[in-house]
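PROTOCOL LOG
Step 1. Enter all chains and additional molecules of the complex.
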Amino acid sequence: MQELVAHLGLGFSVALSMQNIALCFVGALLGTLVGVLPGIGPIATIAMLLPVTFGLEPTSALIMVAGIYYGAQYGSSTTAILLSIPGEASSTVTCLDGHEMAKRGRAGVALGISAIGSFFAGSVATVFVAGLAIPLTSIALRFGPVEFFSLMLMGLVFAAALARGSMFNAVIAIVFGVLLSTIGPDLVTGQLRMTFHVNELADGIDFAILGMGLFGIGEILRNLEHSMSREILKRRIGRLLPGKKELRQSAWPIVRGTMVGAGLGILPGNGAVLGAFASYILEKKIARDPTRFGAGAIEGVAGPESANNAGAQTSFIPLLTLGIPANAVMAIMVGAMTIHGIVPGPQVISANPDLFWGLIASMWIGNLMLLVINLPLIGIWVKLLSVPYRMLFPAIILFCCIGAFSLNGSTVEIALLAAFGLLGYAMSKFGFEPAPLALGMVLGVRMEEALRQSMIISGGDFLIFVTRPISAALLLGAAVLVVIVLVPEIRKRREEVFAEEDD
Amino acid sequence: MTIGPNETGRVGPLRIRSPQRFVAGVVLLGICFLVFWAVADLSSGTVQNMGPGMFPRALAALLGISGTIQIAVSFWLEGQSLEQWSFRGPVLVTAGILLFALTVRPLGLSVAGMLALAVSGFAIQDARPRQVIVFSALVTVACVILFRYLLEMSIPVLVIPGTGIRF
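Step 2. Run joint prediction.
Step 3. Record the structure below.
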């Protein structure tokens, strides 16, 4: 406990410099600004804004990126509530009751409770992350390539099982993502693979390009098909601060949402996306009058929004302790770290304690920024939302182009951006999700490395993955999840969960 | 040749029952062959000591198998027909991005940005020509100020070839 306080103290002493607070604030502001654009989620937002942090030293840069991330998340919730357009999978739940509240003239309260809930969740999750960091890091240091391979495999199995739509399609998307990651130099011999004599591919595909293409451009191409004439909120936003009664109604949902979200967020393979759904179902189940849900129940906003934010925070845990990104957002964080010369993994905490604890402390500061600065600015975001889509989307495309160019100054990468945009569009036409592909791409290189090392250790015997206890346990966990998902009874319920989101 | 009972319970002739799945399967098979061709001169090594070609081949094989399953199933199960593809959006957006890629170095951000915005701006159905042009110009100016002068990114603003003018 004392240690925890000391560590957090160190973190705050790093993060609380005037410069870092300012950067965190600017990050949160920019993140909200881009994240509030319809259809642009945190992944595309961070990828687009990455160039802004290039000139900074690593700690400040990561603090700013974290600010951008929280801002983007809040921006997604804002569009979900005001326009019923989710920027990311996990804010689809917020659309249900959040938008209903907005239609009933309570948009302000919905936005307010979502910020308050997120702040509470963020504060608890920060302590959670800090507390789990040391024990998990010590476990991670005992991991060899065999265990790492099984862990990543488990992450991918989770991602497939938790994906929307067909699990078979999710597996294919993952395999294709891993395949994309093998483009570039071979890990051992350095021979170029599948680069088709394009020099720019000799280092492999930059994940930020893939992220912007699949999640930014691809989303625009999908949106262009529907007329984006959105029902712009004509009603007043109303007061922002919830009243006593509303606070009382929301208090327990916020606490429960935080617990659910924080727990699921640790899971590798995008557990965080489940948090909001799980919290919504939980609240609906224990509510005295479940019919209120879907008609503007404040619990249906407070719970999922808290779960969402808690999960967003605890999904940093696998990255910071094991070096394994749990989802595509964390993959972008890996990109941000590597640009600044930090290889995420268990060694960061001892080699770079300032950065590690500073980042954790900045999570809390980022949440505070959202509450005290972003919330009062809500009027500006609403104005931004009234800009028609036909003017917004070309600007988003240009930002992506400039972002792609700024990464390495390469024009071939801009062309790749267009290619991934088309890929994202084509995938949606065949019922494939982009998120599993992104995760496969992120984990691919390390999986191949771990697999090849494991095979050298075992002399080519695949049984090593089930004879080593930790590895066997991880694979068993993955197998159990697959069985759970495939069991008809539970499968039916899973469909219900995802059906609710389609309403 | 017949396969699977159809809706009436009778055994019907062989036909594609889920076109979406069928095309997806064909594409996956295509990717599989492309990869095998691309890594043809890379050694696979042994399982114990894998060469550079092993992992890509294994993954490509997985995709190939999945594709074959998709194709087989598409004759068996009724499924979704192919979705309508739109051309205006994807073509104009892609053209805008490629124009940016081609012009940003030789002509600079002010030209490339303008082109990307103006071309992709027409990707939406209700685009209004004059509005697109005016808005593109405004956003281009804003981007030049933001990225070149505020964020000090190394991106050329305006290059006029042959005159040596360069900002």
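Step 4. Note key features.
Residues 107-141 of chain A form the longest helix (35 residues).
Chain A touches chain B through 62 residues (CB under 8 Å).
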